[in-house]
């Protein structure tokens, strides 16, 4: 079976990128064709290079015109043969340039059960709110921040006396399991965005 080629966008340590690379080595039908970093010093770049994956590293000045930055990224993704875009801790909002180039093919990971706790501080926001269950969402990105069609969610219980650090570790562990699993569903053609905007998973 031919592997699904994806481009992975990172901004930091790249632990979810590593989870995808590891799963690919273990038989996940997904190939990381390119890694794009929004920061030249992100550790995710080292993970990509260690795996022999080409890297496009941008820096803050490159994003002064966000659409021009996305035009550059899209061109690199297309040159690499990427069929889907996978955001893995990417701290930049994608523009319509990328969404038009990859309609319903830009996948994002959010460390909460959307629509609850949107934004960049989802884990601490959920912790501070005292919820007993939070979790992880994988969804398609669209022009509304953290509002795209939901593909999958995995709950994480907030145990009594659990610290914020412990919750963050549990969330990240769940991300590393859920994201490759969802990419496998996409690679196998099991994920369909229906006309009503909801996602159907085919068995």
Give a short overview:
With 203 residues, this protein is α/β, with parallel strands linked by helices. Helix content is 35%, strand content 24%.
Question: What can you see in these coordinates?
Answer:
Helices cover 35% and strands 24% of the residues. The chain has 203 residues and is of the alpha/beta class. The protein has a seven-stranded mixed β-sheet with strand order 3-2-1-4-5-6-7, sandwiched between helices. Strands 8-9 form a two-stranded antiparallel sheet. Strand 1 (4-10), helix 1 and strand 2 (30-37) form a beta-alpha-beta unit. Helix 1 (15-25) crosses helix 6. The longest helix is centred in the C-terminal third of the chain and has 24 residues, at 164-187.
Largest beta-sheet characterization: 7 strands, mixed
What would you call the structural class?
alpha/beta
Average predicted confidence as pLDDT: 96
Tell me the span between the first and last alpha carbons.
18 Å
Percentage of residues in strands = 15-25%
Assembly state of the chains shown: single chain
Unreliable parts: none
* Topology pattern, helix = H, strand = E: EHEHEHEHEHEEHEE
Q: What Rg do the Cα atoms give? A: 16 Å
Helix content: 25-40%
**Continuous helix count:** 6
What sort of overall outline do the alpha carbons produce when their principal axes are compared? globular
Secondary structure: number of strands? 9
Strand order of the largest sheet: 3-2-1-4-5-6-7
């Amino acid at each position: 079976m031919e592997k699904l080629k994806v481009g992975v966008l990172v901004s930091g340590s790249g632990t979810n990128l590593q989870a995808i690379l590891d799963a690919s080595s273990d038989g996940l039908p997904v190939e990381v064709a390119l890694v794009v970093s929004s920061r030249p010093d992100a550790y995710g770049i080292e993970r990509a290079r260690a795996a022999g994956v080409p890297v496009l590293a941008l820096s803050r000045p490159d994003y002064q015109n966000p659409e021009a930055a996305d035009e550059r990224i899209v061109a690199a993704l297309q040159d690499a043969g990427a069929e889907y875009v996978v955001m893995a801790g990417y701290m930049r909002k994608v523009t319509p340039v990328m969404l038009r180039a990859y309609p319903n093919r830009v996948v994002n990971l959010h460390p909460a059960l959307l629509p609850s706790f949107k934004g960049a501080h989802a884990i601490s926001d959920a912790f501070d709110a005292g919820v007993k269950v939070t979790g992880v969402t994988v969804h398609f990105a669209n022009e509304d921040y953290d509002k795209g069609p939901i593909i999958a969610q995995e709950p994480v219980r907030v145990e009594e006396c659990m610290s914020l650090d412990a919750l963050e570790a549990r969330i990240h562990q769940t991300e590393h399991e859920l994201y490759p699993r969802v990419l496998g569903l996409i690679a196998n053609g099991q994920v369909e965005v229906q006309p009503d905007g909801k996602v159907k998973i085919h068995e």
